Amino acid sequence: MAGTFDDTRSAALFARARRVLPGGVNSPVRAMRAIGRDPLFIERGAGAEIVDVDGNRYVDYVCSWGALIAGHAHPHVLAAVSAAAQRGTSFGAPTAAEVELAEEVARRVPGAEMVRMTSSGTEAAMTAVRLARAHTGRDAVVKFAGAYHGHSDGLLAAAGSGLATQGIPASPGVPAATAAATVVVPWNDREALIAASERHALAAILAEPCPANMGVVEPAPGFLELLRERADATGALLVLDEVISGFRVGRGGAAERYGVRADLVVLGKILGGGLPAAAIAGSRELLEELAPVGEVYQAGTLSGNPLAVAAGLATLELLDEGAYEQLAASTAALADGLRAAARGHAVSVAALPGLLTVFFAERPPADLAQVARCDVAAHAAWCRELLARGVYPPPSQYEAWFVSLAHGAEHIERTVQAAAGAFAALGR
Ligand SMILES: Cc1ncc(COP(=O)(O)O)c(C=O)c1O
Question: What distance in Å separates the CA atoms of residue 115 and residue 228, rounded to the nearest whole number?
Fold first, then answer.
């Protein structure tokens, strides 16, 4: 098993890559440092599987970090993208398909009367914050520890000590003054949220409604309702970042699943069906504060790109009621199988439809501080064993596994067997 795993070609490519790409990658988590190995270079993917440059085949649970809910190279998505490409790849002028996609978002996402598209979730979250600030005339924004909203300066803020703290830069290069306008609150901490909303004049409360960037950590009962109540009581906007949960945990995302009304919703990943697209959505009143109707500036050369819009529309066409039932059932089967495979280990599984995290902790964590107490060394070793057994997990304890519609019973069975083997190898 682990002994026969050959990654010679990946290793050679990584050596070349490190000469021309910082750390050999274009996005840090891909470097696999958190699980103590070098990255694998992927050659191709089909359905639920990917194949690396050494010919190793894996059941893929990254699925482009959730963008590929239909799996790799889905024929319906490919046909739509290639038909769009035949007509031209980008115009920088309006197209009919953008209108269709916005209409489909409006049909699905509660409160989404209008949509403004961007190319990345980072831009969309940044735009939501700008719009909230312009609308309220206030600067401060609450975000939750462990949530990720892309890498714009103001949202790369980390918690200081204490319950609800003015953010400190989470990266060199982020101005202290910019991070200080972000108030960082522990997830699921009612008291800290109330304190923050009383102490600061908030433009927005920004949350992943079911956080997946510290692993999957569901909201405690009543917590999302508290976000809504605090926004209403203070005049702040409630911005739900559904870049991961949107179109995944249900047809209308987490807002629909948990029955919470957002003022602005941030969308991405599935919206672009594996090509770069993201958006903010909300009421006409708010969205028309954006240029060219209003004065809040936001723009993008490739925004609403025809290929990304075609991939997004084709993907949403696949996501009917039956698809959500299938996704919920296959995620539940995988979660149950992983729990059974983990018996005897201090491991728990947190799962939502289409998403799960295997936490190396007795119980699923409720906040970032609890995630930080997981046994990350054992998690890393287990992930390396999984790779050697043909399963490609997200290479960090702080991430979610993405299940797609292409993951069938046979993939899940294979994954559970590999997981059991990997746990057994940990004991040795
Ligand atoms: C919840 C959330 N918001 C925003 C982003 C940023 O999106 P992008 O990587 O497209 O900039 C991500 C990326 O993973 C995300 O998970």
Answer: 21
Per the document, the length of the chain is 428
The CA 149 to ligand 1 mean position distance, Å, reads 5
Residue 166 — pLDDT band, cuts 50, 70, 90?
confident
Q: What's the pLDDT at 343?
A: 96
Angle at 108 between CA 107 and CA 109, to 5 degrees: 110
pTM of the entire predicted model:
0.97
The answer to whether 137 and 111 have CB atoms below 8 angstroms apart is: no
Three-state DSSP state, 290: strand
Our mutation pick for probing the ligand 1 site, out of 244, 270, 396, counting the most ligand atoms within 8 A of Cβ, is 244
Which tokens hold the place of 262? Answer: 């957002």
For the residues of 44-85, what is the DSSP string, one character each? EEEBTEEEETT--EEEES-TGGGT-TT-BT-HHHHHHHHHHH
Question: Which of 148, 245, 280, 398 to mutate to test ligand 1, by most ligand atoms within 8 A of the CB atom?
Answer: 148
pLDDT digits (tens, 9 = 90+) for 20-63: 999 999 999 999 999 999 999 999 999 999 999 999 999 999 99
